[in-house]
Design a protein that fits this description.
The protein has 141 residues and is mainly alpha-helical. The strands form two sheets. It has a two-stranded parallel sheet. A two-stranded antiparallel ribbon has the order 2-3. The relative contact order is 0.12.
């Protein structure tokens, strides 16, 4: 969902400092950030700051140290308040489509939307929207 960091955090890929290259972590790192940042982190092992991690796309949010716990709880509550069924479908589709061509990803995602509307929670969400009320999730597929 959201990868967070505090303003005082540093993030690194430091196996090179102990005689190992971060080959396995580099697989995900190279897909999460641009290649130049990934290679810099892999070659130097130096930590990057939380703001640099945010700018590079490694984290999605940066908070001050004194609010990270409350913000993490707030975000977790926000996600938990959604339909579990819809969130599971969405995560599955996102992770699958992201590796596909734009045309194939769009086709797959259109099918996922239809599948989503076929769930009890998909129908409840649409009804609640049209009726201007808060949905009551069943979390059933």
């Amino acid at each position: 969902v959201s990868t967070q960091s505090t303003g005082s955090s540093g993030i690194n890929a430091e196996y090179g400092n102990i005689g190992l290259f971060c080959s396995t972590p580099g697989v995900q790192l190279g897909r999460a950030v641009n290649r130049k940042l990934a290679m810099d982190m892999l070659l130097t092992g130096e930590p990057i700051s939380a703001p640099a991690a945010l700018a590079g796309g490694l984290v999605s949010r940066v908070y001050e140290d004194d609010v990270i716990e409350s913000e993490t709880e707030r975000l977790a509550g926000l996600v938990a308040s959604k339909s579990h069924t819809v969130i599971q479908l969405g995560i599955s589709n996102f992770n699958s489509q992201i590796r596909k061509s734009l045309v194939d990803a769009a086709e797959q995602s259109s099918e996922a939307m239809v599948q989503n509307l076929g769930t009890a929670d998909g129908r409840e969400g649409l009804s609640a929207f049209l009726e201007k009320r808060h949905p009551t999730w069943s979390h059933d597929k």
